[in-house]
Write a structure and sequence with these properties.
The protein has 415 residues and is an alpha+beta fold. The protein folds into two domains: 123 residues; 237 residues, PPM-type phosphatase domain (Phosphatase 2c, domain 1, 4-Layer Sandwich). It has nine helices and ten strands. The strands form two sheets. Strands 1-10-9-6-7 form a five-stranded antiparallel sheet. A five-stranded antiparallel sheet has the order 2-3-4-5-8. α1 runs antiparallel to α3 and α5 packs across α6. It is globular. It starts with a helix and ends in a 31-residue tail after the last strand.
Amino acid sequence: MFGLLGAFAYATYLSYYGSLRISDAFSYQSKVVSAQRDSELLEVEQFQSHAGPEQLRPYEKLLAVDLHEIDRLAESDAERAPHFAFPATRQDYEVLTAALLARESLGRSRFDSTVYRNTRTRDLSNAIFAVVALLFAVLVGRLRRTIEEGRSLVEQLQRAFIAKRRDLPNVDVGSVLLSATRGSKVGGDTFDAFSLDRRHAMFLVADVSGKGIEAAVNTALIKYSIRTLFSEDPDPRSILAKFSALYARSVDEPESFVVAFLAVVDLDTGRVRYASAGHEPAWAILGQDVVALPPSGPVIGMEPESQYDLRELHLGAGDALILTTDGLTESRDGGGALLGSTGVMIWLSELEGGAQALADAIVRRLRKRSSRITDDLAILVVKYAPTRRPGTAPDPIPAAAQVREPVLASGEPRS
Protein backbone atom coordinates (compact mmCIF):
# COMPACT_ATOMS: atom_id res chain seq x y z
CA MET A 1 0.00 0.00 0.00
CA PHE A 2 2.74 2.42 1.06
CA GLY A 3 4.79 1.40 -1.97
CA LEU A 4 1.85 2.20 -4.23
CA LEU A 5 1.34 5.57 -2.54
CA GLY A 6 5.06 6.29 -2.87
CA ALA A 7 5.05 5.38 -6.55
CA PHE A 8 1.97 7.48 -7.08
CA ALA A 9 3.59 10.45 -5.29
CA TYR A 10 6.76 10.07 -7.37
CA ALA A 11 4.79 9.78 -10.61
CA THR A 12 2.77 12.83 -9.59
CA TYR A 13 5.99 14.80 -9.03
CA LEU A 14 7.31 13.78 -12.46
CA SER A 15 4.01 14.65 -14.06
CA TYR A 16 3.93 18.04 -12.30
CA TYR A 17 7.49 18.83 -13.35
CA GLY A 18 6.70 17.79 -16.93
CA SER A 19 3.56 19.94 -16.90
CA LEU A 20 5.61 22.96 -15.84
CA ARG A 21 7.97 22.41 -18.75
CA ILE A 22 5.05 22.06 -21.14
CA SER A 23 3.51 25.25 -19.74
CA ASP A 24 6.80 27.13 -20.22
CA ALA A 25 7.12 25.84 -23.79
CA PHE A 26 3.57 26.91 -24.57
CA SER A 27 4.13 30.34 -22.99
CA TYR A 28 7.30 30.78 -25.06
CA GLN A 29 5.37 30.09 -28.27
CA SER A 30 2.60 32.49 -27.20
CA LYS A 31 5.06 35.32 -26.54
CA VAL A 32 6.74 34.82 -29.91
CA VAL A 33 3.34 35.07 -31.65
CA SER A 34 2.50 38.16 -29.56
CA ALA A 35 5.80 39.79 -30.54
CA GLN A 36 5.06 39.09 -34.22
CA ARG A 37 1.70 40.82 -33.95
CA ASP A 38 3.03 43.80 -32.01
CA SER A 39 5.97 44.30 -34.40
CA GLU A 40 3.54 44.30 -37.33
CA LEU A 41 1.34 46.85 -35.54
CA LEU A 42 4.35 49.07 -34.78
CA GLU A 43 5.56 48.82 -38.38
CA VAL A 44 2.14 49.87 -39.70
CA GLU A 45 1.89 52.80 -37.26
CA GLN A 46 5.42 54.02 -38.06
CA PHE A 47 5.50 53.73 -41.85
CA GLN A 48 1.87 53.71 -42.99
CA SER A 49 0.15 55.88 -40.37
CA HIS A 50 3.32 58.03 -39.96
CA ALA A 51 2.80 58.24 -36.20
CA GLY A 52 5.14 60.46 -34.18
CA PRO A 53 7.49 59.34 -31.38
CA GLU A 54 4.90 59.97 -28.63
CA GLN A 55 2.25 57.97 -30.49
CA LEU A 56 4.68 55.11 -31.15
CA ARG A 57 5.91 54.84 -27.55
CA PRO A 58 2.97 52.68 -26.24
CA TYR A 59 3.43 50.24 -29.13
CA GLU A 60 7.19 50.13 -28.56
CA LYS A 61 6.52 49.30 -24.90
CA LEU A 62 4.27 46.36 -25.85
CA LEU A 63 6.92 44.94 -28.18
CA ALA A 64 9.67 45.45 -25.59
CA VAL A 65 7.63 43.53 -22.99
CA ASP A 66 7.13 40.66 -25.46
CA LEU A 67 10.86 40.45 -26.24
CA HIS A 68 11.69 40.51 -22.52
CA GLU A 69 9.31 37.60 -21.89
CA ILE A 70 10.84 35.64 -24.79
CA ASP A 71 14.24 36.10 -23.16
CA ARG A 72 12.91 35.02 -19.76
CA LEU A 73 11.36 31.81 -21.11
CA ALA A 74 14.23 30.86 -23.46
CA GLU A 75 16.10 27.63 -22.70
CA SER A 76 18.98 28.18 -25.13
CA ASP A 77 20.87 31.00 -26.79
CA ALA A 78 19.10 30.26 -30.06
CA GLU A 79 15.72 30.81 -28.39
CA ARG A 80 16.66 34.16 -26.87
CA ALA A 81 14.89 37.25 -28.15
CA PRO A 82 16.45 38.94 -31.19
CA HIS A 83 18.01 42.34 -30.69
CA PHE A 84 15.74 45.21 -31.75
CA ALA A 85 16.29 48.90 -31.09
CA PHE A 86 14.12 51.96 -31.53
CA PRO A 87 13.81 53.84 -33.80
CA ALA A 88 13.87 51.19 -36.50
CA THR A 89 14.07 51.09 -40.28
CA ARG A 90 12.01 48.91 -42.61
CA GLN A 91 15.04 46.62 -42.93
CA ASP A 92 15.14 46.29 -39.12
CA TYR A 93 11.52 45.10 -39.17
CA GLU A 94 12.29 42.59 -41.93
CA VAL A 95 15.20 41.22 -39.88
CA LEU A 96 13.00 41.06 -36.76
CA THR A 97 10.21 39.26 -38.66
CA ALA A 98 12.66 36.63 -39.95
CA ALA A 99 14.17 36.18 -36.48
CA LEU A 100 10.76 35.74 -34.84
CA LEU A 101 9.74 33.18 -37.48
CA ALA A 102 12.89 31.22 -36.58
CA ARG A 103 11.98 31.41 -32.87
CA GLU A 104 8.47 30.25 -33.69
CA SER A 105 9.91 27.14 -35.34
CA LEU A 106 12.21 26.53 -32.38
CA GLY A 107 9.27 26.97 -30.03
CA ARG A 108 7.23 24.33 -31.85
CA SER A 109 10.14 21.88 -31.72
CA ARG A 110 10.64 22.58 -28.03
CA PHE A 111 6.96 22.03 -27.28
CA ASP A 112 6.81 18.78 -29.24
CA SER A 113 9.96 17.38 -27.64
CA THR A 114 8.77 18.42 -24.16
CA VAL A 115 5.49 16.63 -24.64
CA TYR A 116 7.34 13.57 -25.95
CA ARG A 117 9.73 13.44 -22.98
CA ASN A 118 6.87 13.90 -20.55
CA THR A 119 4.97 11.04 -22.19
CA ARG A 120 7.97 8.71 -21.87
CA THR A 121 8.35 9.62 -18.20
CA ARG A 122 4.77 8.61 -17.58
CA ASP A 123 5.55 5.10 -18.85
CA LEU A 124 7.41 4.44 -15.56
CA SER A 125 4.23 3.11 -14.05
CA ASN A 126 1.59 1.82 -16.43
CA ALA A 127 -0.84 0.93 -13.70
CA ILE A 128 -0.63 4.35 -12.03
CA PHE A 129 -0.85 6.22 -15.27
CA ALA A 130 -3.81 4.15 -16.36
CA VAL A 131 -5.60 5.75 -13.43
CA VAL A 132 -4.11 9.14 -14.28
CA ALA A 133 -5.20 8.71 -17.90
CA LEU A 134 -8.71 7.83 -16.78
CA LEU A 135 -8.89 10.86 -14.51
CA PHE A 136 -7.39 13.01 -17.25
CA ALA A 137 -10.01 11.78 -19.72
CA VAL A 138 -12.78 12.65 -17.27
CA LEU A 139 -11.33 16.11 -16.64
CA VAL A 140 -10.80 16.76 -20.34
CA GLY A 141 -14.36 15.70 -21.05
CA ARG A 142 -15.66 18.12 -18.43
CA LEU A 143 -13.39 20.86 -19.71
CA ARG A 144 -14.53 20.33 -23.27
CA ARG A 145 -18.16 20.49 -22.22
CA THR A 146 -17.48 23.69 -20.31
CA ILE A 147 -15.67 25.23 -23.28
CA GLU A 148 -18.41 24.22 -25.70
CA GLU A 149 -21.08 25.64 -23.39
CA GLY A 150 -19.12 28.88 -23.08
CA ARG A 151 -18.49 29.04 -26.81
CA SER A 152 -22.17 28.43 -27.54
CA LEU A 153 -23.12 31.16 -25.08
CA VAL A 154 -20.76 33.68 -26.69
CA GLU A 155 -21.98 32.82 -30.20
CA GLN A 156 -25.61 33.21 -29.13
CA LEU A 157 -24.76 36.50 -27.44
CA GLN A 158 -23.07 37.88 -30.55
CA ARG A 159 -25.92 36.74 -32.80
CA ALA A 160 -28.38 38.39 -30.44
CA PHE A 161 -26.54 41.73 -30.68
CA ILE A 162 -26.97 41.80 -34.45
CA ALA A 163 -30.45 40.27 -34.59
CA LYS A 164 -31.95 42.82 -32.18
CA ARG A 165 -31.26 45.81 -34.39
CA ARG A 166 -34.17 47.16 -36.42
CA ASP A 167 -34.05 47.46 -40.20
CA LEU A 168 -32.34 50.71 -41.04
CA PRO A 169 -34.01 52.89 -43.69
CA ASN A 170 -31.99 54.48 -46.50
CA VAL A 171 -28.88 52.36 -45.92
CA ASP A 172 -27.74 48.97 -47.23
CA VAL A 173 -25.59 47.16 -44.65
CA GLY A 174 -23.22 44.25 -45.29
CA SER A 175 -20.94 42.48 -42.82
CA VAL A 176 -18.42 39.69 -42.35
CA LEU A 177 -16.99 38.35 -39.07
CA LEU A 178 -14.14 35.80 -39.24
CA SER A 179 -12.20 34.22 -36.39
CA ALA A 180 -8.59 33.10 -36.75
CA THR A 181 -8.98 30.77 -33.74
CA ARG A 182 -9.22 27.17 -34.93
CA GLY A 183 -12.50 25.54 -33.93
CA SER A 184 -14.15 28.82 -32.98
CA LYS A 185 -16.44 31.18 -34.85
CA VAL A 186 -15.82 34.08 -32.48
CA GLY A 187 -12.86 36.28 -31.65
CA GLY A 188 -11.82 39.70 -30.47
CA ASP A 189 -13.09 41.61 -33.52
CA THR A 190 -16.67 42.82 -33.58
CA PHE A 191 -19.09 45.21 -35.25
CA ASP A 192 -22.46 46.73 -34.45
CA ALA A 193 -25.17 48.49 -36.47
CA PHE A 194 -27.84 49.93 -34.22
CA SER A 195 -30.83 52.24 -34.67
CA LEU A 196 -30.64 55.18 -32.22
CA ASP A 197 -33.99 56.68 -33.26
CA ARG A 198 -36.16 56.98 -36.38
CA ARG A 199 -33.55 59.08 -38.14
CA HIS A 200 -30.10 58.16 -36.78
CA ALA A 201 -28.08 54.95 -36.66
CA MET A 202 -24.80 54.04 -34.97
CA PHE A 203 -22.12 51.96 -36.70
CA LEU A 204 -19.18 50.44 -34.82
CA VAL A 205 -16.18 48.28 -35.67
CA ALA A 206 -13.78 47.35 -32.84
CA ASP A 207 -10.79 45.09 -32.21
CA VAL A 208 -10.01 43.87 -28.69
CA SER A 209 -6.44 42.75 -27.98
CA GLY A 210 -6.04 39.00 -27.72
CA LYS A 211 -7.80 36.15 -29.50
CA GLY A 212 -10.36 33.43 -28.97
CA ILE A 213 -13.17 33.08 -26.46
CA GLU A 214 -11.63 35.36 -23.82
CA ALA A 215 -11.32 38.24 -26.27
CA ALA A 216 -14.80 37.54 -27.64
CA VAL A 217 -16.34 37.89 -24.18
CA ASN A 218 -14.80 41.37 -23.89
CA THR A 219 -16.72 42.47 -26.97
CA ALA A 220 -19.89 42.32 -24.86
CA LEU A 221 -18.50 45.12 -22.69
CA ILE A 222 -17.91 47.26 -25.79
CA LYS A 223 -21.35 46.83 -27.34
CA TYR A 224 -23.39 47.16 -24.17
CA SER A 225 -21.38 50.12 -22.93
CA ILE A 226 -21.43 52.12 -26.16
CA ARG A 227 -25.12 51.52 -26.74
CA THR A 228 -25.82 52.65 -23.19
CA LEU A 229 -23.65 55.76 -23.51
CA PHE A 230 -25.53 56.74 -26.65
CA SER A 231 -28.74 56.93 -24.64
CA GLU A 232 -27.30 60.02 -22.93
CA ASP A 233 -25.00 61.57 -25.55
CA PRO A 234 -25.21 61.55 -29.39
CA ASP A 235 -21.60 62.69 -29.93
CA PRO A 236 -19.22 59.88 -31.11
CA ARG A 237 -16.19 61.81 -29.85
CA SER A 238 -17.63 62.07 -26.35
CA ILE A 239 -18.76 58.43 -26.42
CA LEU A 240 -15.23 57.17 -27.13
CA ALA A 241 -13.73 59.38 -24.41
CA LYS A 242 -16.24 58.11 -21.83
CA PHE A 243 -15.80 54.49 -22.91
CA SER A 244 -12.01 54.84 -22.70
CA ALA A 245 -12.31 55.90 -19.04
CA LEU A 246 -14.82 53.09 -18.37
CA TYR A 247 -12.58 50.48 -20.02
CA ALA A 248 -9.61 51.53 -17.90
CA ARG A 249 -11.67 50.90 -14.74
CA SER A 250 -13.27 47.67 -15.93
CA VAL A 251 -10.41 45.59 -17.38
CA ASP A 252 -7.90 43.83 -15.14
CA GLU A 253 -5.14 43.31 -17.72
CA PRO A 254 -3.06 46.53 -17.85
CA GLU A 255 -1.82 45.77 -21.38
CA SER A 256 -5.29 45.19 -22.82
CA PHE A 257 -6.44 47.68 -25.44
CA VAL A 258 -9.20 48.35 -27.97
CA VAL A 259 -9.16 50.04 -31.35
CA ALA A 260 -12.53 51.27 -32.57
CA PHE A 261 -14.28 53.30 -35.27
CA LEU A 262 -17.60 54.83 -34.25
CA ALA A 263 -19.94 56.71 -36.60
CA VAL A 264 -23.43 58.21 -36.40
CA VAL A 265 -25.26 58.50 -39.73
CA ASP A 266 -28.24 60.78 -40.39
CA LEU A 267 -30.37 58.37 -42.43
CA ASP A 268 -32.33 61.23 -44.03
CA THR A 269 -29.42 63.36 -45.24
CA GLY A 270 -26.37 61.06 -45.40
CA ARG A 271 -24.47 63.22 -42.92
CA VAL A 272 -21.82 61.19 -41.05
CA ARG A 273 -20.17 62.24 -37.79
CA TYR A 274 -17.42 59.95 -36.59
CA ALA A 275 -14.48 59.47 -34.25
CA SER A 276 -11.91 56.68 -34.21
CA ALA A 277 -9.64 55.34 -31.48
CA GLY A 278 -6.33 54.36 -33.06
CA HIS A 279 -8.26 52.46 -35.71
CA GLU A 280 -6.87 51.16 -38.95
CA PRO A 281 -7.86 53.59 -41.68
CA ALA A 282 -11.51 53.27 -42.53
CA TRP A 283 -12.54 54.24 -46.03
CA ALA A 284 -15.32 56.14 -47.78
CA ILE A 285 -16.32 55.62 -51.38
CA LEU A 286 -17.49 59.07 -52.53
CA GLY A 287 -18.58 58.93 -56.14
CA GLN A 288 -15.58 57.60 -58.06
CA ASP A 289 -13.11 58.42 -55.26
CA VAL A 290 -11.90 56.18 -52.43
CA VAL A 291 -10.89 58.26 -49.39
CA ALA A 292 -9.06 57.02 -46.27
CA LEU A 293 -10.41 58.10 -42.88
CA PRO A 294 -7.43 58.20 -40.49
CA PRO A 295 -7.66 57.87 -36.67
CA SER A 296 -8.91 60.86 -34.68
CA GLY A 297 -7.46 59.82 -31.31
CA PRO A 298 -5.37 57.24 -29.42
CA VAL A 299 -6.00 53.53 -28.84
CA ILE A 300 -8.37 52.86 -25.93
CA GLY A 301 -6.41 51.54 -22.96
CA MET A 302 -3.12 53.28 -23.78
CA GLU A 303 -3.83 56.46 -21.81
CA PRO A 304 -5.97 56.96 -18.67
CA GLU A 305 -7.85 59.96 -20.10
CA SER A 306 -8.06 60.04 -23.89
CA GLN A 307 -9.60 62.75 -26.06
CA TYR A 308 -10.84 62.39 -29.61
CA ASP A 309 -11.57 64.72 -32.53
CA LEU A 310 -15.00 64.73 -34.15
CA ARG A 311 -14.98 64.57 -37.95
CA GLU A 312 -17.68 64.77 -40.56
CA LEU A 313 -18.48 63.86 -44.14
CA HIS A 314 -21.59 63.53 -46.28
CA LEU A 315 -22.65 60.46 -48.24
CA GLY A 316 -24.51 60.84 -51.51
CA ALA A 317 -26.68 58.18 -53.10
CA GLY A 318 -24.47 55.14 -53.78
CA ASP A 319 -21.61 56.32 -51.53
CA ALA A 320 -20.39 53.96 -48.82
CA LEU A 321 -18.40 53.59 -45.61
CA ILE A 322 -16.10 50.56 -45.37
CA LEU A 323 -14.97 49.77 -41.80
CA THR A 324 -12.60 46.88 -41.04
CA THR A 325 -10.23 45.68 -38.35
CA ASP A 326 -6.50 45.19 -38.94
CA GLY A 327 -6.94 41.59 -40.03
CA LEU A 328 -7.37 43.05 -43.53
CA THR A 329 -4.57 45.63 -43.83
CA GLU A 330 -2.06 43.47 -41.90
CA SER A 331 -2.72 40.35 -43.96
CA ARG A 332 0.35 39.06 -45.82
CA ASP A 333 0.76 37.40 -49.18
CA GLY A 334 2.94 34.35 -49.85
CA GLY A 335 6.04 36.56 -49.88
CA GLY A 336 5.24 38.16 -46.53
CA ALA A 337 4.20 41.57 -47.94
CA LEU A 338 1.51 43.48 -46.08
CA LEU A 339 -1.66 44.45 -47.95
CA GLY A 340 -1.80 47.86 -46.25
CA SER A 341 -4.28 50.69 -46.62
CA THR A 342 -3.16 51.47 -50.17
CA GLY A 343 -3.85 47.90 -51.26
CA VAL A 344 -7.35 48.04 -49.77
CA MET A 345 -8.06 51.33 -51.56
CA ILE A 346 -7.07 49.73 -54.87
CA TRP A 347 -9.44 46.83 -54.19
CA LEU A 348 -12.31 49.16 -53.31
CA SER A 349 -11.81 51.17 -56.51
CA GLU A 350 -12.28 47.95 -58.50
CA LEU A 351 -15.25 46.40 -56.68
CA GLU A 352 -18.93 47.04 -57.29
CA GLY A 353 -22.31 45.89 -56.01
CA GLY A 354 -24.41 46.13 -52.89
CA ALA A 355 -23.07 46.30 -49.34
CA GLN A 356 -23.01 42.54 -48.65
CA ALA A 357 -21.65 41.78 -52.12
CA LEU A 358 -18.84 44.27 -51.48
CA ALA A 359 -17.99 42.73 -48.07
CA ASP A 360 -17.98 39.21 -49.54
CA ALA A 361 -15.80 40.30 -52.48
CA ILE A 362 -13.20 41.71 -50.06
CA VAL A 363 -13.03 38.36 -48.25
CA ARG A 364 -12.69 36.44 -51.52
CA ARG A 365 -9.76 38.61 -52.56
CA LEU A 366 -8.20 38.22 -49.12
CA ARG A 367 -8.41 34.42 -49.25
CA LYS A 368 -6.95 34.39 -52.76
CA ARG A 369 -4.03 36.66 -51.74
CA SER A 370 -3.24 35.03 -48.37
CA SER A 371 -2.75 31.30 -47.86
CA ARG A 372 -4.58 31.41 -44.53
CA ILE A 373 -6.28 33.93 -42.26
CA THR A 374 -4.03 34.48 -39.24
CA ASP A 375 -5.95 37.27 -37.51
CA ASP A 376 -9.57 37.90 -36.60
CA LEU A 377 -11.40 40.08 -39.11
CA ALA A 378 -14.54 42.20 -38.96
CA ILE A 379 -15.88 44.05 -42.00
CA LEU A 380 -18.86 46.43 -41.98
CA VAL A 381 -20.04 48.10 -45.19
CA VAL A 382 -22.65 50.88 -44.99
CA LYS A 383 -23.95 52.00 -48.39
CA TYR A 384 -26.20 55.06 -48.56
CA ALA A 385 -29.27 54.20 -50.63
CA PRO A 386 -31.98 56.80 -49.90
CA THR A 387 -35.52 55.74 -50.78
CA ARG A 388 -37.37 58.61 -49.13
CA ARG A 389 -37.03 62.38 -49.18
CA PRO A 390 -35.42 64.04 -46.15
CA GLY A 391 -38.00 64.99 -43.57
CA THR A 392 -36.06 67.77 -41.91
CA ALA A 393 -32.92 69.82 -42.27
CA PRO A 394 -29.60 68.35 -41.11
CA ASP A 395 -28.91 68.37 -37.39
CA PRO A 396 -26.77 71.25 -36.09
CA ILE A 397 -23.20 70.28 -35.26
CA PRO A 398 -22.84 69.88 -31.46
CA ALA A 399 -21.36 72.98 -29.84
CA ALA A 400 -18.31 71.02 -28.67
CA ALA A 401 -17.48 70.16 -32.26
CA GLN A 402 -17.68 73.74 -33.59
CA VAL A 403 -14.24 74.68 -32.27
CA ARG A 404 -12.75 72.95 -35.33
CA GLU A 405 -13.69 73.05 -38.98
CA PRO A 406 -15.23 69.77 -40.16
CA VAL A 407 -12.58 67.88 -42.09
CA LEU A 408 -12.55 65.06 -44.58
CA ALA A 409 -10.29 62.02 -44.30
CA SER A 410 -7.51 63.77 -46.16
CA GLY A 411 -7.25 66.24 -43.28
CA GLU A 412 -8.01 69.23 -45.56
CA PRO A 413 -10.70 71.67 -44.32
CA ARG A 414 -13.94 71.75 -46.22
CA SER A 415 -14.15 74.68 -48.63
